[in-house]
Fold these 3 entries.
Entry 1:
Amino acid sequence: MNSFIYQLEGVYLSKNGKDILKDINLDIPKGDRLSVVGPSGSGKSSLLRLLSTLDSASKGRVFYGGKDIDTMEPIDYRRKVRYVFQKPYLFGNTVRDNLVFPYNVMKMNPDFDRIYYLMDKLNVPLDFLDKDKDNLSGGEQQRIALIRSILMEPEVLLLDEVTASLDIVNSKLVEEYMIELNEEKGMTIFLVTHDLAQARRWGGNTIYLEDGRLKHYMPTDEFCRQYGKDLTVFGKRKGEDGDE
Amino acid sequence: MNEMTLNIYSLMMASVLVFISIIFSYWQNLKLEKDIIVGTVRAVLQLTAVGFLLNYIFKLDHWLYTTLMMLFMIYNASNIAAKRGRGIQKGKSIAFVAIGAGAATTLAILVLVGAIKYIPSEVIPVSGMVIGNAMVAVGLCFRQMQQLFADRAQEVEIKLSLGANEKVASMGIIRQSIRLAMQPTVDSLKTLGIVSLPGMMTGLILAGTPPLKAIQYQIMVTFMLTSTVSIATFVAGYLAYRRFFNDKRQLVNITREE
Ligand SMILES: Nc1ncnc2c1ncn2[C@@H]1O[C@H](COP(=O)(O)OP(=O)(O)OP(=O)(O)O)[C@@H](O)[C@H]1O
Ligand SMILES: [Mg+2]
């Protein structure tokens, strides 16, 4: 077996004739906790889309547990690797429609104990289950989208700025539970963030992208020590500082 | 049919009506004059050619030529329907199968229950109506699908990434496209006779058929149009959604690739 969960070899991603990811080479150990940072438009979401097989590399190869991702059945792969989109989006009418969906596609009966457990864990009131999705705040939608993706306990979780519309209390709550999943279940988790303080709390390793290229891959504390002063690496907009 | 007052002479006089729209277009600067002239000439030529062709096929009165004529009509209809969904790969073939399935089922039922006979003078006009309506509905279905796959791309991708297959991920879009494509037919059911006297009935009445008899025909036509349109849009919807995905079960952006 292979101790790397992902190996990327000279990966390019192009869309409409433009190279969005360029020559990415990366070995990621199983169970790693990663923060993905870089200026806006540097390709963070694109990297996650690629790893979630919503897009395919135009050049180069991606291996998952030693297997070429292109040779795997996408449905089986996506059941192990879950991607939480940057823009939260709920479908159907109610929260319930969203939370039973992952069970329905696998022709399983919904496990409401688990649904309630995760709602509780992520601070979503249990009586929200039958709430109309349009009557939820952005932060509530984001947490429900997150629950929807972790119900099945994936091997890999790809989180694209999932705490962007959360207050600091809920944001920390989410981070802590994600760290728990990583440490206790060995889930490999990617967290895209624009927040230096969050990256510090998250720890693990940092993938730093710039203009579609992988510029750094190193332990997060070292990355923050070396580059944390330079606010542009986190793609900060003016007046939007870390919270320390 | 012998009481008809229409003859070649009065038909030529009626072409004055076309000049009204040309003058109107010129006066209002609509720039439609050329289109109107070309369209009118085409319509006259096409109809004349079809008139001769039908005359010939009616005389032959052979099931093989009748069937070939129908296939030809379905072929033309699917080309036009596919234009509504430019960018949907194999749109023409999908439309052909969909319109063909709708028309064939409906005609088979009509012939089996004895409502019409499989002779050119009955089958061809009836297929013309059926195919024309199926064409419009399939075209609408294609256009709806393209629009919805563009608007709801994120929903589809979220469902894919939650482990759904293409069909499950597209289900909402397929159903809504079929529904919207059938809507005009269903709406016209409700207004039939109140707002519109449909073309067939009008034609029969002008040609001297008593209104009560004409209505019987029209009721049959209404039934058959409804069934054809539902079969054709259903087949089109369930065949076309696959074209929005590649073999890696990824949503492909066909509106951008045009
Ligand atoms: N479908 C597409 N067609 C063309 N260009 C695209 C497409 N999708 C993304 N891009 C471009 O690719 C680049 C990387 O986009 P991406 O969304 O990965 O950035 P990001 O690092 O996630 O940015 P942000 O921090 O703002 O979310 C951007 O320049 C973007 O405009
Ligand atoms: Mg992004």
Entry 2:
Amino acid sequence: MEMVSNAPTGPIEKSWETHKFGLKLVSPANKRKHNIIVVGTGLAGGSAAASLGELGYNVDCFCFQDSPRRAHSIAAQGGINAAKNYHNDGDSVYRLFYDTVKGGDFRSREANVYRLAQVSVNIIDQCVAQGVPFAREYGGLLDNRSFGGAQVSRTFYARGQTGQQLLLGAYQALERQVGLGTVKMYPRTEMLDLIVIDGRARGIVTRSLCDGKLSVHFGDAVVLATGGYGNVFYLSTNAKGSNATAIWRAYKRGALFANPCYTQIHPTCIPHSGDYQSKLTLMSESLRNDGRIWVPKKAGDKRPPASIPEHERDYYLERRYPSFGNLVPRDIASRAAKAVCDEGRGVGETGLGVYLDFSDALKRLGRHKLDERYGNLFEMYERITGENPYEVPMRIFPATHYTMGGLWVDYNLMSTVPGLFVLGEANFSDHGANRLGASALMQGLADGYFIIPYTIGNYLASTKHEKYSEDVPAAKEAVANVNIITKKLLNANGKRTVDSYHRELGKILWEYCGMSRNAAGLKKAAGMIAELREDFWRNVRVLGSNEEFNQSLEKAGRVADFFELGELMCADALHRNESCGAHFREEYQTPEGEALRDDANYSYVAAWESQGARRPASLNKEPLVFHYVKPSQRSYK
Amino acid sequence: MKLILHVWRQKNAQDRGRMVRYEVPGVNEHMSFLEMLDVLNQGLIEKGEDPIAFDHDCREGICGMCGFMIDGKAHGGFKGTTVCQLHMRHFKDGDELYLEPWRAAAFPVVKDLVVDRSAFDRIIAAGGFISVPTGSAPDGNAIPVRKQDADLAMDAAACIGCGACVAACPNAAAALFVGAKISHLAHLPQGQAERNRRALSMVRQMNREGFANCTNIGECEAACPKQIKLEVIAQSNADYIRAAFRERPETVVSGVG
Ligand SMILES: Cc1cc2nc3c(=O)[nH]c(=O)nc-3n(C[C@H](O)[C@H](O)[C@H](O)COP(=O)(O)OP(=O)(O)OC[C@H]3O[C@@H](n4cnc5c(N)ncnc54)[C@H](O)[C@@H]3O)c2cc1C
Ligand code: FES
């Protein structure tokens, strides 16, 4: 398979400008003749659909929730980065670029990351103009905070609801276009297959979640902005409906899947409490600015935290990383928590938790200051656990949070299937092997507002688009494919619920392909998943019919795809004989237990190509070359 | 603990629907209300019975997807809480609870506890925005905004569009939802150019959707999981009246309808 990154060469500061100038344009009168399909209404899809509608294209836009405003971007709490340097603290486009490449452990494409840092400043302007109520200082200007251990204050926020407010901005822009008739919105509609004609993406097959009706939608281009696949682990900080189906089915139609094993585990989530647990809740990373993380020194110490004297506590992050302490990057903090729990020093009923203690901060800052900083988070914690963090230290544990992997795209955000563009968390670009806090919102909006409107025009202007009717063979075949899957799920008529399979799959992946991995475990996991997948198709129980509102059927289709994706994640993790970012292979670590990269052999994007159901996926490599940020070992000691 | 639930079961919009009684043993106080329903549903599927349909997604109280009546109270009636964030420690062994969907003419039932809230989207499409095409914005700090105004805008913008206000209102009015958006944008300098037009268009669309008039009962404020205040309704009423005087009819862009 040919993979051309189309990344411009020459001075990186100019490359996006030059590249844009070279892109072909679609004249205003011709825009409305083009139909564009946008799947997803999160920050990436919502902003794309609105912007394309404004340009005059005809847009059909889809989401599985009952309203585009509910995409999971809504749940982001912390904030969004931008290199505004409003605080005169030495931030710049170059520094944001540098931090992102380094934070990604040198596994991302430099040109993309530079562009992301460049357009970050326009995003803030756009959002402010839309009425996003960012936090302000008394002088009326925008407030910023430092986030996730960054050394500058470049994070913009709207209380603890940044994602919500950014999404509502994009949603309102989108609804404006709906009102004007440029965008037609299809809520409660799920994309179940991609239609490829003569090698190009020309449409999708959807199922109405209300009555099961399948429909064919044609477009001159298809944009997928369907979010991340963290729910492959069953328990994650993602919404219950978040899934991989759209990108997975596109993968089966020829789009390459890049770096599936790069999954981010967030260190500060509320630990799970029992088998009924349906999801994990994130506690903002900002808590690590003032909370101290510890566990008892002795394994099996079950005394309540207040009865454990100071000298019997192990503040393990402060001990191991004296200069960054509790603020080490996410991957490092998560692995350290796992390590102490593996030693039997975890806290809480399950032993899978560590303390995040605010008692020193309370003495230092006082109740009022803490309330101001974390009041809403403390409240949320108490609501869920019934414990007051002012009285008892919080208990936290890592949870799956974000997926850096996704469909491979070139500099124009186009996949290996011409006409298929992929935006936001659904693509693999920009974050390498580890994402920095507050950068996903930035990427989603960069892709949707400022990149796709340019690059899609170039594709449309340089391609001829025939019109098709529903009886074109590729469309009929795609519809038939969806019907086969649905029938198989409904007819299995077995004994086990979809959720019970999903839970078991998640446990396998968490155990063997989670925070740390090794070759033996990954091989074992691949075998276990394959077995479970076969059992699923024989023994799953999905009641009801296709022609109704049927939540079990929706879930079943998504879980079926998660099985296959899980296997590919294991294969990817197994082939990458190095540790980098969130991918930690136990065989490859420094004597101090830190990730050991192998740049000589693994400085590439691993893009997997489907070879059909019966044969393993084949590997394609996009070499990564660093002209600006020289790869070095990350050190936070 | 063990609970008795009476749940509204309705196959689809055409079905008449009825209450069905279920027993849920083994409820743990740490479960959320929706996790308790998950457990019930797993049991139903194993018995070969159709599981109860309910909307949910984030389960963090922010997406606004979940929501139904528990004993006649939206989201169960606990202060500032959506049903996904409501934990079972608030209930006790043997409690008997009645679960019903939002009841409002503008929110037809889809199935069981699931309703169609697309009327809210159409109200936003009619005018709940600031018209600023991508790329046309000035620098973010070009227009200072008083902190107090930004805070008030944020208070109103916290609405999650769940529909509890409509369900709680004896008139099934959408005044709190509409007021929240009008108030959010009215507090910002960026929202001034379209302020009149927005109030007129949104209120007109609200009426077209079949929401009844607000008679200032205040149940909506009590039911709102985000604690949006009644003052947003006062604000939108004021804006609407002002707009009705000032705005010329020909400049009013009608919504979709
Ligand atoms: C709890 C939490 C907190 C976070 N906090 C931050 C933060 O503070 N800062 C930060 O930068 N990032 C944060 N992130 C990450 C960030 O929120 C996400 O990466 C980002 O919002 C993803 O946006 P998206 O547009 O790509 O996808 P999403 O917002 O997930 O949207 C996906 C869309 O695709 C649709 N869809 C999916 N599949 C289909 C299908 N088959 N058919 C039709 N429609 C489909 C959905 O309906 C939805 O509209 C956080 C993430 C979580 C989970
Ligand atoms: S499920 Fe999102 S608010 Fe309850």
Entry 3:
Amino acid sequence: MNYIPNILFALALIAGLGYFAKNVKKLIRNIKLGQDVDVSDNKSLRWKNMARIALGQSKMVKRPVSGFLHVVVYVGFVIINIEVLEIIIDGLFGTHRIFSTVLPDAIYGFLIGCFEILAFLVFISVIVFWIRRNIIKIQRFWKSEMTAWPKNDANYILYFEMVLMTLFLVMNATDLHFQSMDSGNIISQYIAPWFSGLSESSIHIIERAAWWIHILGILVFLNYLYFSKHLHILLAFPNTYYGKINPKGQLNNLEAVTNEVKMMMDPNVDPFAAPAEGVENVMPAKFGASDVQDLSWVQLLNAYTCTECGRCTSECPANLTGKKLSPRKIMMDTRDRLEEVGKNIDANNGEFKDDGKQLLGDYIAPEELWACTTCNACVEACPVSIDPLSIIIEMRRYLVMEQSAAPVELNNMMTNIENNGAPWPYNQMDRLNWKDE
Amino acid sequence: MSEQLKVPTMAQCMAEGRQPEVLFWVGSAGSYDDRAKKITRAFVKILNIANVDFAVLGTEESCTGDVAKRAGNEFLFQMQAVTNIEVLNAYQVKRVVTACPHSYNTLKNEYPELGGNYQVQHHTEFINELMKDGRIKIGGASKLSGKRITFHDPCYLGRANGVYEAPRDLLKSLGVELVEMKRSKNTALCCGAGGAQMFKEPEKGDKDINVLRTEDALETQPNIIATGCPYCNTMMTDGVKAKEKEASIQVLDIAELIANSQE
Ligand code: SF4
Ligand code: SF4
């Protein structure tokens, strides 16, 4: 027997999975560069959110057209993967359509029939997606942060899917034995006649070629994920699990500040006393965030999960009125900077070497941050539970508490609050004057 | 508005040895802003008519710190919060109602962790309860019946806290024709005031947010734009002026609409 194909297949599989695993490790390491945050609460609600939002796509269907098409592609993607299992077994053991020998013909035919229909629907959906992006030019895909790479990335994925689905159908259409079973070839029976003029051996070669390119394509696709916005097909699950569960309006209270404030308000505390032995100094290195390491790991996970769909930006009041702020850009910048930091660590034997850059200023300008109305439209719109607002607030905190760099009117407002307990310069003693006016 | 309102303060109640049912948190806008003060008075009028046993903090109230927090000044926010919580807890306050969604959100969501635990309601929720309990009634032929009204959801009431129906229920009870804007409820567009924008010039852009939102409202051809937040009220009022529609379209808080229906 000739084992060369089996060996080649095993090697390809190992290489594909190995490189993927390596990148997953890097991904996890990068996410862990973020600050720790306690998300161990409300497990059942979190599971429910994951089931509803990631598995159930509940936010996607808010926009019916793209939502429906996305569900088709998503269901197709998940279910067709059962077929990949068969391909892997066949490839490793030199069998052919192993499931057809263990499953009753009717069931096997039914399964493949479903895959074929899904493959066809995915193909059609992907074409509609492509038209929406490139011909109709739906606005949210053409905002300024959608530079060459994000645009190409989105299209590459669509081409990938078109090719993979075509190969799957061609592989079935040119499988003479499968066609002769005449069960499950719901779509491929219409493709088979295209090849009917060819000799049996040529058809067999086409079938083998389609089979190989299909599975190699899947391995390439798997490894493309890490570099793409398509990472969301994996990260949407953890991200919706760890997503915000508090009311949207609730911003976190900085614990370090709470400790400070307690000290200031407590007359019994001697502010100059040395910290008691064993008590850790709780003062953080800085308040707020100027770079990715200052954000929480959930915020970094958010950045890797972002699908760059722009639903957030298309609802952002600041963006709609021509301001520079785009919540999608906030997420894309965070990911780009995190990748840069990750590469820096790789290049310097696991240590980050100061590169004179940071997220604030080099990627995100204060002008963007100060345009936000904290309206939560972006958070509401995001189909995968990303919270761009939390990053904006974290960076404002840095600007104000570390750099005293608030716009001058805001400084006045804050001075008023400090002096007379209201954002305007009115006398505290006049607070009840409305009663008699 | 010169009618005499009954506005007891917590200090007075304490001196009389009684604990009011609910504290009315007026908020900085409701205390100082000329337009917002009218909303405050309208709400108190309703409280008086319904004979609600309430009190205010008066000069003991201080800014919740919402705007400082959203501007990034967590120190100032927590100083304000701790100071307010001390006062509220000293008066053993259990229940709070406010006409400002920003105060509502901060008191309800951000104070508990700092030691302030209260049952907090927005005034539209509170008035709804008064209606259900029959403590306040809308006259059979409401002056507003048949008027077209559109409601602008405040971000800090709607998206931030999921309260969409309380204000709408009140409007419906007035017998008005409630028309929704194309962006409403959880997809409502912000008025442009939140996140400390109220206190600064907008960043560079091609339009003001309140004008865009007013355009949303004008599309519904309303007689009245109803609001539930003093800041939204200012923004929408300015928007209507910018569109030169102030002669035909009023911007009124729901508390004002209800209070007017009581005359
Ligand atoms: S919260 Fe800020 S970034 Fe998000 S939609 Fe509103 S204004 Fe835009
Ligand atoms: S943050 Fe969410 S809504 Fe915005 S682009 Fe990313 S995935 Fe889409």
